[in-house]
Design a protein that fits this description.
Blueprint (H helix, E strand, L loop, with lengths): L1 H18 L20 E6 L5 H15 L3 E5 L11 H10 L1 E4 L13 H8 L4 E7 L12 E7 L3 E11 L2 E7 L2 H17 L4 E6 L7 H13 L6 E6 H10 L6 E4 L1 H15 L6 E5 L4 E5 L9 H6 L5 H13 L3 H17 L13 H11 L2
Helix pairs in contact: 2-10, 2-12, 5-6, 7-8, 10-11, 11-12
Family: Belongs to the isocitrate and isopropylmalate dehydrogenases family.
InterPro entries: Isocitrate_DH_NAD, IsoPropMal-DH-like_dom
GO cellular component, one term: mitochondrion
Length: 369
């Protein structure tokens, strides 16, 4: 009886399914907990030079989106001796900060406030995503590199002193603890974002103990992620490979100084510092800013003509929205920015156009769905 009833059952199921109302195409991508939609406070540091111009661009777009964030704004400048205590308290309370570039004076006297923030908040992982934007011509295609950089030690430890006049000793500090946790972060990032490969960048052929310890830590962590391919590359060869065949790289994990060089090289290949997002994250806090070097911060021409490129900070703020668990707002912002870039009507000078910052912002707001 059961076998004879199967054809009838299949017929009933097929006929009933053909008369049902079609389901909506939009799927549930994020199921919030009660209260997740409450606006979140974010510490905002406009910074120096073009910083206020591009952070204002983010403020305008967030307002147009009705994004569930509000900003606590503080004036911080690179020539200050320290980050003001009230700013640190705000970041520690809010857990999240968005900042423009801070200039770092050359030579002695004033230390980098960027480094101070990373050390005091233990923002041990710097992440820069370097990728091709559709419609933006570059020498190489299919570039999508994530540089994960150790952010608290290495040459940036700042342990320098003058032994005798004319002789300065600078110490590079590499610890197993910091090397292991940055390696773990890189592999976790790769695992959670469906990345296939992690490449450790080093100079262990010369710095056998320091970079050797970094490599040893990466190898140990790699054994816990068998589904992700792991390889290693010497930093000088890495730079050569980046400019000749960048599409071979996926996620790269590096000590502090190498990461700065590699991230800026990759950014230049993929479209320039004006379009690459980034962030610094630790166990408790995160700061989002332009991903590659903020060397354009002090460009007086960009400031006077109001033609600074806001794309990098807009994409960084999308990263921030995703970090705050507002994925649909992040998707809307990223989609709008990429649409404006691909159409090509509104681009700043660094991308081959003649638009002002405000014209790009208006175009992004107009592209929001």
């Amino acid at each position: 009886m059961a076998r004879r009833s199967l054809p009838l059952l299949k017929h009933l199921l097929s006929s009933s399914s053909s008369t049902t109302t079609p389901t909506l195409s939009r799927s549930v991508t994020y199921m919030p907990r009660p209260g997740d939609g409450a606006p979140r406070p974010v510490t905002l540091i406009p910074g120096d030079g073009i910083g206020p111009l591009v952070t204002n661009a983010v403020e305008q777009v967030m307002e147009a989106m009705h994004a569930p964030v509000y900003f606590e704004k503080y004036e911080v400048h690179g020539d200050m001796m320290r980050v003001p205590s009230e700013v640190m308290e705000s970041i520690k309370k809010n857990k999240v900060c968005l900042k423009g570039g801070l200039t770092t004076p050359m030579g002695g006297g004033v230390s980098s406030l960027n480094v101070q923030l990373r050390k005091e908040l233990d923002l041990y992982a710097s992440l820069v995503n370097c990728f091709n934007l559709q419609g933006l011509p570059t020498r190489h295609q299919n570039v999508d590199i994530v540089v994960v950089r150790e952010n608290t030690e290495g040459e940036y430890a700042g342990l320098e002193h003058e032994v005798v006049p004319g002789v300065v000793e600078s110490l590079k500090v590499i610890t197993k603890f910091c090397s292991e946790r940055i390696a773990k972060y890189a592999f976790e990032y790769a695992y959670l974002n469906n990345r296939k490969q992690v490449t450790a960048v080093h100079k262990a052929n010369i710095m056998k103990l320091a970079d050797g310890l970094f490599l040893e830590s990466c190898r140990e962590v790699a054994t816990k992620y068998p589904g992700i391919k792991y390889n290693e590359i010497i930093v000088d060869n890495c730079c050569m490979q980046l400019v000749s065949k960048p599409e071979q790289f996926d996620v790269m994990v590096t000590p502090n100084l190498y990461g700065n060089l590699v991230a800026n090289t990759a950014a230049g290949i993929a479209g320039g510092t004006g379009v690459m997002p980034g962030g610094n994250v630790g166990a408790d806090h995160a700061i989002f800013e332009q991903g590659a070097s903020a060397g354009n911060v002090g460009n007086e021409n960009l400031l006077e003509q109001k033609t600074a490129n806001p794309v990098a900070l807009l994409l960084s703020s999308a990263m921030m929205l995703r970090h705050l668990q507002f994925p649909s707002f992040a998707d809307r912002l990223e989609t709008a920015v990429k649409l404006v870039i691909s159409e090509g009507r509104y681009r700043t000078k660094d991308l081959g156009g003649s638009s002002t910052t405000q014209e790009v912002v208006d175009a992004v707001i107009g592209a929001l769905d």
